[in-house]
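[Primary structure, fold]
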Amino acid sequence: MSTARTALETEEHQALRAAVAALGKRYGRDYMTTVIREGKHTDELWAEAAKLGYLGVNLPEEYGGGGGGMAELSIVLEELGAAGSPLLMMIVSPAICGTVIARFGTEEQKQKWLPGLADGSLTMAFGITEPDAGSNSHRITTTARRDGDDWVLTGRKVFVSGVDIADATLIVGRTEDARSGKLKPCLFIVPREAPGFGRNQIDMELHAPEKQFELVLDDVRLPADALVGDEDAGLLQLFAGLNPERIMTAAFGIGMGRFALGRAVEYARTRQVWKEPIGSHQAIAHPLATAHIDLELSRLMMQKAARLYDEGDDIGAGEAANMAKYAAGEACVKAVDQAVHTLGGNGLTREYGLASLITASRVARIAPVSREMILNYVSHQSLGLPKSY
C-alpha cells in the first residue's frame, strides 16, 4: 500500500482495506473467470464477504450492519476489484437499496430488509432506466396509481442487474400529485414473485456473473407499505440512492483499473525482449505511471464524495460523486487499455485475464449515467452555464 493512500485514511480504514484485500486475493481473477465461464454466481465470495461483515459495513448497527458509511463500503468494493473479483451487486443491494431503506424506510421495512441485506441473505436489485427515457428521469413512464389501499404499477425497465438472484427490486415509478396533477418520482419494493412482474434476460457481450434484465410491470399490485418513504419527498429519496451508486461505481472502476495496472506492471518488470525489461523503456513506463496517477486522483475525489455523503451533505456529495464517477470511469478505461497494450498479444489471451476487461471497463463510463450527462451536470450545477435541453 502506497504512503499516499494511507496518509489520508484512519487506522480502521487501513485495516479494513488490508483485510478485504486478503479476502480478494484468496479468490482473485481465476475465481471470477471460472464463475463466468460456468454461468454461475459469486455465491461463495458473497457469502464470505457477508460473514466477515463487509457487505453491510455501511448499514446501521441496530439492524445488523457495521455502522459505517460509503467510505467503508467503497473500500470493500475497490479492494475486491483490485484483486480481480469485484461484486457488482454491492453497488445495488447495500449501497443503493440499503441506504434508501435505512434513511427513509418505515421501521417495519427496516426490520424486514436491513438485517438480510447486511448479512447477505437478502439481496435487492434497482430499476430506474427505461427503454425510451435513457438518462432523462423526467421521461420515466412507469406509473403507480392508488387502488384502495394498494398501489398498482405499470411500466418497463431495462438494464437491471441481478434480478434473477434478487429477492426484490426497488423500482422507481411516478405517482400523480393530487394538487398539481404532475408526476413525481416514488420508490417501491417489488418482490421477485409478484404477479405481473416479468423479466427477460438481455443478451450482453459483457461477460459478468451478474446478468442484465428487461422488466415488465403489468398491473403489479402492491400493498401500501411497498412505498418507501414519503410520497411527497420522492426526488430527495431517489438522489439519496443515486449518490451512493456513483460513489460505488467509482470504486468499481478504480478497483478494476488497479487490477489491470498491477498485471501490466508485473509484466513490464519481468518481460525482457532486448537488454533490459520492457518496463525500463519510457514508452512503456510513462503511460503506466500516468494511469497510476489518474487512478490515485480518482480515489481522492471518491473519498471526498464518500465523506461528504456520510456527513449528510447531499448537495456537496452530489457534485463530488458525479466527478468521482467520471474520473474513475476515464481512469479505468485508460488503465485497462494501456495494460492490454503493454502485454501486446498476451493482453488478448485468457491466461492473463485482461481482454475481457476491455468491455467491462466501459461500464464505468456508461452506467449508471454517461460521462456526457455528468459533464452536463457539472456545467449546469457547478459552473452555472445554461442548459441545452
In short: The chain is about 50% helix and 15% strand.
